[in-house]
């Protein structure tokens, strides 16, 4: 009998489990459409050229390895805020934005949820979209906050259930916290249009809803960082005090560097200072201070106009490759003779496509054809390339005809 004898086995992570099964598979045709990371057309992880250049410059500077302050690197926080909210955002200039460096987007969400748990003056529950990225639910639960779901995806139209979403906002108690995917909704790839975001913002204002934006794909979704930040910036324009979890994992390809930020818009400079002080306490009590390397890379790229321009071109290339992969998948399904309507593949945006395949069809894809994806039918577009797209379309047709 040890201290750990009664520990039950935790369930495997539904997303990471797909990659494990893929690695164990010996079939030469195997394809991994589970992984939430970009791959180039040769199915290789991609280090952005602007990042390589920034790393060279940093290496030559022979910087030290001292601790960062609890709130992270100040220049990084400033540049990250400008990228999210816009270079000329008034809220940055007037000192109302509390920004703290975080362990990528996940760490930003965690800090935000904990701030809600300890200091938010409103219901201690968090509304997440149905469906949502699984970690939203897990993190909310582990912050001892109640998870509630709002309608989002319509499985009949394979698109947005806008009416359901608006109804659920209307019915939520005043000051409820809503997590919104600012762009490139994970797992569905279905986003509200700009006009719909305008309506969502107006209703949230009327209902005094607290908007918590998870914007993990800015620039990476459409290839245009301003377009991808539309929802966040519209809410700010409309006077919401937003919270924003930011990540540089996807758009700068810095997955393992764990670099992001949590931004909290407050009413005044004085309030901002207080919120910042509490965020720093949360950091101190969990990991003391954030890592330095990713913050230096992002700061270098964002501060240098040439590197920043290169970066914009590079994330547009990634976004374009994913848009082209969607078109190729749809075209090949048609070539196979599929009579199903696959328009949703190209209507959706970002890293993921909610294919509409049911669990049985996914099971067949995995066991009979060695095409790996999550049970909910989510395809990671980053895993498609010119060499495997015909095979994937062929197998999708076989399991859906
Ligand atoms: N939010 C969403 C919706 C995501 O899809 C992801 C990554 O898959 C994240 C946040 C956070 O990612 P990271 O912690 O790697 O920045």
UniProtKB/TrEMBL annotation:
Its cofactor is pyridoxal 5'-phosphate. It catalyses: L-aspartate + 2-oxoglutarate = oxaloacetate + L-glutamate. Its EC number is 2.6.1.1. The keyword Transferase applies. SUPFAM superfamilies: PLP-dependent transferases. Coiled coil: none annotated. GO terms for molecular function: L-aspartate:2-oxoglutarate aminotransferase activity; pyridoxal phosphate binding. CDD domains: AAT_like. Pfam families: Aminotran_1_2 (PF00155). Gene3D superfamilies: Aspartate Aminotransferase, domain 1, Type I PLP-dependent aspartate aminotransferase-like (Major domain). GO terms for cellular component: mitochondrion. Residues 29-393 form the Aminotransferase class I/classII large domain. One of its GO terms (biological process) is L-aspartate catabolic process. It is an enzyme of class 2 (transferase). Keywords: Aminotransferase, Pyridoxal phosphate, Transferase. In eukaryotes there are cytoplasmic, mitochondrial and chloroplastic isozymes. Belongs to the class-I pyridoxal-phosphate-dependent aminotransferase family. Homodimer. This is Aspartate aminotransferase.
């Amino acid at each position: 009998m040890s201290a750990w004898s009664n520990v039950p086995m935790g369930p495997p992570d539904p997303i990471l489990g797909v990659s494990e099964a893929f690695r164990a598979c010996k079939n030469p045709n195997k394809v991994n459409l589970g992984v939430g990371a970009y791959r180039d057309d040769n199915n290789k992880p991609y280090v952005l050229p602007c990042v390589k250049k920034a790393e060279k410059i940093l290496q030559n500077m022979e910087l030290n390895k001292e601790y960062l302050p609890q709130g992270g690197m100040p220049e990084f926080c400033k540049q990250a805020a400008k990228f999210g909210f816009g270079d000329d955002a008034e809220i940055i200039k007037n000192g109302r934005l509390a920004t703290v460096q975080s362990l990528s987007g996940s760490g930003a969400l965690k800090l935000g949820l904990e701030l809600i748990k300890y200091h938010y003056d409103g219901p201690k529950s968090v509304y997440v979209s149905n469906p949502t990225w699984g970690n939203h639910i897990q993190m909310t639960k582990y912050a001892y906050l109640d998870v509630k779901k709002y309608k989002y995806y319509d499985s009949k139209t394979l698109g947005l259930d806008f009416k359901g979403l608006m109804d659920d906002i209307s019915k939520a108690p005043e000051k409820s916290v809503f997590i919104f995917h600012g762009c490139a909704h994970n797992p569905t790839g279905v986003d509200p249009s700009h006009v719909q975001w305008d309506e969502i913002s107006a209703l949230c204002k009327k209902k005094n809803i607290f908007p918590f934006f998870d914007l993990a794909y800015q620039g990476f979704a459409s290839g245009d960082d301003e377009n991808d930040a539309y929802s966040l910036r519209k809410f700010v324009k409309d006077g919401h005090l937003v919270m924003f979890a930011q990540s540089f994992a996807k758009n700068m390809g810095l997955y393992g560097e764990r670099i992001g930020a949590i931004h909290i818009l407050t009413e005044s400079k004085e309030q901002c200072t207080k919120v910042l002080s509490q965020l720093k306490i949360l950091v101190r009590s969990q990991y003391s201070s954030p890592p330095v390397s990713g913050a230096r890379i992002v700061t270098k790229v964002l501060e240098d106009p040439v590197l920043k321009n290169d970066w914009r071109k590079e994330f547009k290339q990634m976004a374009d490759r994913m848009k082209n992969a969607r078109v190729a998948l749809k075209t090949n399904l048609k070539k196979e003779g599929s009579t199903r309507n696959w328009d949703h593949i190209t209507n959706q945006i970002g890293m993921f496509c909610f294919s509409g395949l049911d669990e049985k069809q996914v099971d067949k894809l995995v066991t009979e054809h060695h095409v790996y994806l999550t049970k909910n039918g989510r395809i990671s577009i980053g895993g498609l390339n010119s060499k495997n797209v015909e095979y994937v379309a062929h197998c999708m047709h076989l399991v859906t005809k």
